[in-house]
Amino acid sequence: MSLPTSLRKSVTPPELEFIASQQLVEIVPLISMERTAFISGAYGPLRPPQKTKIPLWMAVNLKLKKKCHIVAPPWLNVDYLQERLAKETAEKEFSELPFRFAEISKVLLDVASDDLENPDKLRSLLKDLREARQAKSREGLNHLDASELSLPNLCQMEINEIRPFFIQSMAILGQFVRQADNQMQDE
């Protein structure tokens, strides 16, 4: 969802990708490497062709150096995304997806599309899924009231997109409620 500059007071998408880079992904290493300690933890050992889990940032680094193949997460496949898209368009609720699916899928499609099955179809499905979820977000924001709003299964990127608008809207709604309460007390 595109917001005017005045409302963009949240974390930027590249910053969200950076945060998501701590997520563990599975790789097939093409090199051997002993267990290595980093600030975020120790990872390895890497022994080809044995799969291992490492943070996304490390997998991207190794992939760019052609030292591993990244294994797609179980949710990043055509069948799963088609099922989610069908649910998204058929039901009022948001379908359940990993919290950082948008960021992780973007990074993997940018860096490791050769390791993914049918990357063009994945891009298309992710775009359609995102548009369907954005439409639901906009519809949900049209029905804001001062008491509560429940939008379960929103992902990090979606929360980040609606946060500035939501905060301003709730502040205005809160003023209306206080004014109405004051008017009722004066009567």
Describe the secondary-structure layout:
Elements: H1 13-20, E1 24-29, E2 36-38, E3 41-43, E4 52-55, H2 56-64, E5 68-71, H3 78-90, H4 101-111, H5 119-142, H6 156-186
Antiparallel strand pairs: 1-4, 1-5, 2-3
Give a verbal description of the structure.
The structure is a single chain. With 187 residues, the chain is mainly alpha-helical. The chain has one domain: Methane Monooxygenase Hydroxylase, Chain G, domain 1, CATH 1.20.58.1020. The chain is built from 6 helices and 5 strands; from the N terminus they run αββββαβαααα. It has helices at 13-20, 56-64, 78-90, 101-111, 119-142, 156-186; strands spanning 24-29, 36-38, 41-43, 52-55, 68-71. The strands form 2 sheets. It has a 3-stranded antiparallel beta sheet with strand order 4-1-5. A hairpin with a 2-residue loop joins strand 2 (36-38) and strand 3. Helix 1 crosses helix 4 (101-111) and helix 2 runs parallel beside helix 4 (101-111). The protein is elongated, with a radius of gyration of 21 Å.
Mean pLDDT reading: 87
Q: Using only CA atoms, what is the Rg?
A: 21 Å
Number of domains: 1
The largest sheet has its strands arranged as 4-1-5
Number of helices: 6
Query: What is the CATH top level name?
Result: Mainly Alpha
Shape: elongated
What percent strand? Answer: 5-15%
Count of beta strands? 5
Tell me the series of helices and strands, N- to C-terminal. HEEEEHEHHHH
Give the N-terminus to C-terminus distance in angstroms.
43 Å
Low-confidence residue ranges: none
* Biggest β-sheet description: 3 strands, antiparallel
CATH level-two architecture: Up-down Bundle
**From the helix content, strand content and strand pairing, which structural class follows?**
mainly alpha
CATH topology (fold) name: Methane Monooxygenase Hydroxylase, Chain G, domain 1
Residue share in helix: 40-55%
